[in-house]
């Protein structure tokens, strides 16, 4: 039996199985937990077990282990598996110091980790580019130390050569200055095999058709997949994690139709479909501010707002600017995305589109 979305467990290249890796967020979590153990016990271990989302557990090896004057430092060398990740082999380090109880966990950007300088991202301007999922992973894994020491902590996360590596990313364009971002929703890096992923999409559709399903959902990621399942109460077998490959999903359904398809994803991803892109990967579809400016124009925005949106740096920045003037462009993005999908998939399949934010909250749908 073919397991649904088997790319999550078994990503294959044309010749061999690809090896999964671990995100910068997971590596930072391991370093932070090891450093906290050092503050509690007086010794930083050379290996540390970390609990990741979705009941995953992994043991990391530590590189640097320094404990002096109330400051604990630990580092992990990132292993991205067989994914072509720019941070593969990078050293992620965390400095941990106690803080008075009541301050909470304070996250700071060390050398090689960027700062957010523009609105539109999930993090506020001025915050270190350490995303919410890694922050949550770290907080859960160091809870024991907060309890034992009756203390909160200040954590400084850095990446060796992170500033240099950031020049090969989109961080500068997004307004993240000074280094890389600490990322990772699940803690796991899934090897990026296009042929394997497309094959998995096709097999997922085949299984759903064979089971007699009349409604499936294609999601860009785990958050939107879980959100659409909760909203529509679909069985697991009806969920197709299409990732960036919306074109592969639509073309296959054109020839192997199922009566109803719901496309679920984040605003930025499905805005690319609305622009006409069928591969939603950031390396193959650039943000087009003029597209959002045109939407704002059709929605009756002022010339000043249209100009600001036309100079925006990201889809979320454009949406934030529009919302600031009381304009919700998410509805228009849904409408355009649905139109593009219907043009490809044909009349045999009824298509609707649902947008969710980074926390899985419903934004707009049609």
Q: Any guess at the CATH architecture of the largest domain?
A: 3-Layer(aba) Sandwich
The helix content, as a percent range, equals 25-40%
Q: Count of DSSP helices?
A: 13
**How far is the first residue's CA from the last residue's CA?**
34 Å
CATH topology of the largest domain: Beta-carbonic Anhydrase, Chain A
CATH class of the largest domain: Alpha Beta
Overall pLDDT, averaged? 88
Derived from helix and strand composition plus strand pairing, the structural class reads alpha/beta
How do the helices and strands line up, and which of them pair or pack?
Blueprint: E1 21-22, H1 24-41, E2 47-52, E3 56-61, E4 65-68, E5 71-77, E6 91-99, E7 105-109, E8 112-113, E9 115-116, H2 132-141, H3 143-149, E10 152-159, H4 162-166, H5 171-174, E11 176-177, E12 179-180, E13 188-189, H6 194-210, E14 215-219, H7 222-232, E15 239-241, H8 246-255, E16 260-266, H9 267-275, H10 289-298, H11 303-310, H12 315-324, H13 330-345, E17 350-356, E18 362-365
Parallel strand pairs: 7-10, 8-12, 14-15, 14-16, 16-17
Antiparallel strand pairs: 1-13, 2-3, 4-5, 5-6, 6-10, 9-11, 17-18
Helix pairs in contact: 1-2, 6-8, 9-13, 10-11, 10-12, 11-12
